[in-house]
Amino acid sequence: MLHAALVRSPCAHGELLGIDAPRLPHSYALIKAGDIPGKNRLDAFGRAMPVLADDELSYKGEAIAIAVGPDRFAVEKLAGDCVVRFREDTPVFAYEKFSSDQLEAKRTAVVGDPDAAFESAAHIVEGVYRTGRQEHWYAEPHGALARFAYDKLEISVATQWPFHVRRTVASVLGVKPEDVVVLPCEIGTHLDGKLWYPSLVAAFAAVAAVVSKRPVRILFTRGEDARFSPKRPAVTIRHRAAVGPMGELIALESRAVVDIGAASPFAEEIIDRLCLGSFGAYRCPHIRVEGFAVRTNTPPAGPFAGFGLAQAFFAIERHADRIAETVGADPVEWRQSHALGKSDRLASGALLKENVPSAELMDSVITMSDYRRKWSSYELMRHSRAGKEGRRKDGPLRGIGISFAYQGNGFLSTGTESGSYSVETTLEKDGTLEIRTSAVCGSRETAALWRRTASELLALDDEAVRLAPNRTDAVPDSGPSSLSRNVTVVTKLIERCCAAIRKQRFRDPLPITVKRSYRSPKSAEWDGIRMEGLPFSLFSWAAAVVEVEIDPVDYEPKVRGVWLSVDGGRILSDRKARSSLTTGVLHSIGWATRERAVLSDGAYDLQEMLSYDLAVPSEAPPVRIDFTWNDSSVPKGIGELPFSCVPAALVQAVSQAAGRGLGEIPIDAAAIRDALEEE
Questions:
Q1: 297 and 197: one domain?
Q2: Residue 416 pLDDT grade (very low, low, confident, very high; cuts 50, 70, 90)
Q3: Residue 443: per-residue pLDDT
Q4: In sequence order, which residues have a C-beta less than 8 Å from that of residue 204 and are 6 or more positions away?
């Protein structure tokens, strides 16, 4: 087996002139873009990026060649000793102010007459909100193994999307997809960090294997992964609201800008979700929205749990608090009076046909957290401290915040590469059932849930149900395991397969094989360009309350408690649902308070990334979760909800405690100190 390492660009933007390599020992090789037998690009969601840079250099660390040899350390040294010749151009790192050349995707939409609404407004409330980059920090760095199995090339890689890996590798090699077999490895908690990037890593290994005619493994170091793998993108959202004399929301203008780095296959998906979420879960008759996905000469950004909606909900929930404060309204009452309900329309014009339990969710979380008493008490303390010398030295500063948000289940209908995904089941002669799906389980509990679902429908023992080995030559394409699709799509397909077998099992001979497929209904089609239509077939809803305490000496914020009330439809596993939400709460607190992936001169600093201030389970605050049960028989995704709810509630709590309106995350001790010193 050979090992591979990447030669990376030392330049953020410029023209590649050549690579000067040291003398290559026997069995060592340097593979460049011209050696790729097929297409030198990765395609996903209508976007493409090069596998190896050929002439244009787009960011520091971009892969431009693959060093291959039998000794891993010698290969890494060889890659490091290569001298890259280039002509440097002026890089662009800023994204809030951008040129037309930087624009990757744009969205604009107008509903009603916002100009007239602003002319008649009693109040105009403006605000700017920023969310930072965040590292996924999964358990293992990216890596891939490519080896030959007779006339096939097998790829072992940790991925959420095995068939995308297969399509990418086949395209890069110029072969049929059936000639490539992908064997997904266990991925654990990934936060969507292994959605598309493993396809690129697999392409490196595959090209090296085909060119060298030997099995090849590539494995990033932790530092390499931290510096060059995709992160949650930075986002800036500007809101301008027209408010009536009684606090009613008359019109809202929103401008969202996202830094996608040098490339992002999910740019369209992210900007669509940013624009959709910019108006939150509230009614507003007059709307103007602009969204921009902007390229910079920085490492590619990508999906992260929350997927654009999280950043949008942070901004609109903070703006809701600002509106309530401007008109002297209670934050809860303002939200309840403006929350979407059944038969209301989204900003896209789509009619909500299902019940929106906004009142139930907010009442539940308010009761659990004792929100009203605490909020009134902390408001009195905030006002009593105002104008007093030494007011912040008297004791801990406390605050409490609330937020309300939804999760759109699955990808937007125009985003997925294939409109149809499948699951197959077979009831064998011995009475056992085999489930075949390419969906990748993030935990063993998901696999256990699928087995239990099938066993209950067919009256089988759990031990009689098994999952077929996940390899692309033996299972159907079930799509990417992201945005709760394992629950909302794959589980539903398993139920449909088992229901069909149940009808046939006593009249048809065994074995019985049933395949069922999912395709987004035409009524759910989403027009991203016009921002029209029903974006999601299912919506999950949640309200969150967060209580914080700030040390008046070091200004370190401490979360005292988190309360979540969730409408997730039919909960298939109470234990798994609570575990997923609790994990999401921890990561969302980390994003909101401490986790900073900071760029310096267009690149992530190695030492900064290796000392990344990650939120750890031992520091998790008390979390209480309540599920609002309803008559829905449909399971809905809930894993993204903490990212859309918790950060805004947390920053509102910090704002109350500090007596300052804050609108940026992460917000740590230094940020709080700076805000308090702005007298």
A1: no
A2: very low
A3: 82
A4: 4, 6, 51, 63, 66, 144, 218
Q: How far apart are CA 260 and CA 95, in angstroms?
A: 9
Distance CA 503, CA 496 (A): 11
Last residue of a domain, one of 169, 186, 219: 219
For residue 242, the cross-strand partners are 124, 251
Q: For 256-308, what is each residue's pLDDT tens digit?
A: 999 999 998 899 999 999 999 999 999 999 999 999 999 999 999 999 998 89
Q: Which helix (H) or strand (E) holds 5?
A: strand 2-8
Q: What is the CA angle 395-400-401, rounded to 5? A: 150
Domain CATH code at residue 671: 3.30.365.10
Single-letter amino acid, residue 290: E
Assigned token pair, 570: 């039919």
Angle (deg, nearest 10), helices 331-338 and 358-369: 160
* 3-class secondary structure per residue, 612-662: CCCCCHHHCCCEEEEECCCCCCCECCCCCHHHHHHHHHHHHHHHHHHCCCC
Confidence of residue 679 (pLDDT cuts 50, 70, 90): low
**Cα Rg, the chain, nearest whole Å:** 26
Q: Are residues 430 and 544 in the same domain?
A: no
| 390 and 324 share one domain | yes
Work out the average pLDDT over 326-353. Answer: 90
Torsion angle of C-alpha atoms 592, 440, 424, 638, degrees rounded to 10: -20
According to DSSP, the residues that pair with 16 across neighbouring strands are 86
Q: Which of 147, 204, 212 is nearest to 180 (CA)?
A: 147
Reported pTM: 0.95
Helix (H, G, I), strand (E, B) or coil at 359: helix
Return the percentage of the chain with pLDDT > 70, whole number. Answer: 96
**What's the chain's average pLDDT?**
93
Q: Is pLDDT above 90 for 372?
A: yes
Please give the pLDDT value at position 354: 83
Domain that holds residue 637: 235-411+531-677
Instruction: Give pLDDT tens digits for 167-179.
Output: 999 999 999 999 9
Read off the DSSP letter of residue 227: H
Tally of domains within the chain: 3
Other CB atoms closer than 10 Å to residue 385's CB: what's the count? 16
Q: Is residue 103 part of a domain?
A: no
> In CATH, what number is assigned to the domain containing residue 21?
3.90.1170.50
- Residue 184 has φ and ψ, to the nearest 5°, of -70, 140
Q: What is the DSSP string of 549-563?
A: EE-TTT--EEEEEEE
Q: Which of 211-220, 366-375, 611-620 has the lowest mean pLDDT?
A: 611-620
CA dihedral 401, 126, 261, 308 (to 10 degrees): 50
Partner residues linked to 261 by β-bridges: 295
Q: Are 329 and 291 in contact (CB under 8 A)?
A: no
C-alpha span between 472 and 459 (Å, rounded): 29
What confidence tier does 148 reach under pLDDT thresholds 50, 70, 90?
A: very high
Question: Of 469, 487, 519, which one is at a domain's C-terminal end?
Answer: 519
**Same domain (yes/no): 467, 322:** no
Q: How many CB atoms lie within 10 A of CB 435?
A: 24
Query: Whole-angstrom Cα distance, residue 432 to residue 429?
Result: 7
Res. 527: pLDDT tops 80: no
Contact at 8 Å (CB) between 383 and 373? Answer: no
Question: Can you state the percent helix, strand and coil of the chain, rounding each to 5?
Answer: 35, 30, 40
